[in-house]
Write a structure and sequence with these properties.
four-stranded antiparallel β-sheet; 8 helices; 10 strands; DNA-binding
DNA sequence: GTTTAACCCTGCACGC
DNA sequence: TGCGTGCAGGGTTAAA
């Protein structure tokens, strides 16, 4: 599942590859679930006509959302969901299964949206209306883009009484962290997933604050994570290299890289959580 | 205020 | 071998 690091890698690559390109043709393909991807639009034409002829002027990221700003005062908003992928390729390249949307540039090939599980979505909105998109409105602090102040961070933890894993994954608090990186951040900070936020000492909070930045920056450096069952691929179809540095995620039964205790897995709100019972307290 | 469960869909593992 | 069934997976949201 693409989380903040993967989405940021894609954003940076899009900035290099598609800014300045003009969309010659936009096609919502006739796949079984293509309409699910553009579910906010009433029909294909409504989506396609907003894009044709526009030039991409800049790329933004808000949490796990990618925003392609267009020179026609519209913005193309993309959320990759669980299995969404943006692929830059030549127009002549074979079309992969589950390719739902294709943007054809006047120069520079195509940008394709592929999504087997169709949890992702794309929509076009007037730039002036982006502030009214409720999913974007509710997003909390983006730890890379906005300064996550020590005061806000520690006060929020102290004022809530919720389990740490849930809080880290709460997009209204900090946006961009999902299941993989919440496990890795909590391991690095030495904090269990089920610790309640108001039980953290000031040194716990300090370690956690550092771990958020360190893990996310490292994951971006290695171009994200493509874990065993993850289908994440970058803009060029390559897997992320951070998988080899994972300390706990999907390492159930394997020795902890720090203390050799077998990594455990538990269920939290129907999600798998991986942790070291020795290093995390 | 917080937690839980259901929903969305596909691919894979497993059993017959 | 082939088919059918059940479940995992994450974000969101409604319900508890």
């Amino acid at each position: 599942m693409p989380e903040l690091p993967e989405v940021e890698v894609i954003r940076r690559d899009l900035e290099k590859e598609v800014v300045g390109r003009k969309i010659r043709k936009a096609e919502v393909r006739s796949t079984k679930n293509a309409m699910r991807i553009i579910r906010r639009h009433k029909n294909r034409k409504d989506f396609e006509s907003a894009l044709v002829g526009a030039k991409i002027s800049s790329i933004d990221r808000l949490g796990k959302y990618i925003l392609l700003h267009l020179d026609n005062q519209m913005a193309l908003v993309i959320h990759l969901g669980m299995s969404g992928q943006l692929l830059q390729c030549k127009a002549s390249a074979a079309v992969e299964n589950h390719t739902h949307v294709v943007l054809d540039f006047t120069v520079g090939g195509q940008l394709r949206y592929i999504d087997p599980r169709t949890f992702g979505e794309m929509f076009v909105s007037p730039k002036g209306d982006l502030g009214e998109v409720k999913e974007l409105q509710k997003l909390g602090i983006d730890p890379l883009e906005q300064p996550l102040t020590w005061q806000y961070f520690s006060e929020t933890l102290a004022n809530k009484k919720t389990k740490m894993k849930g809080l880290l994954m709460d997009q209204k608090f900090i946006c961009g962290i999902g299941n993989i990186y919440s496990d890795e951040i909590l391991f690095l900070a030495g904090i269990r997933h089920d610790r309640e936020s108001d039980s953290l000492s000031s040194s716990d909070v300090r370690r956690l604050y550092r771990a958020i930045h360190e893990i996310l920056q490292d994951a971006i450096k290695y171009r994200g994570t493509s874990a065993d069952d993850e289908q994440y691929r970058d803009l060029y179809g390559a897997v992320g290299e951070y998988s080899q540095f994972l300390k706990v995620y999907q390492r159930e039964g394997q020795p902890c890289r720090r203390c050799r205790t077998p990594v455990e897995r538990s269920r939290w709100s129907n999600r798998s959580t991986f942790y070291c019972p020795q290093c995390q307290v």
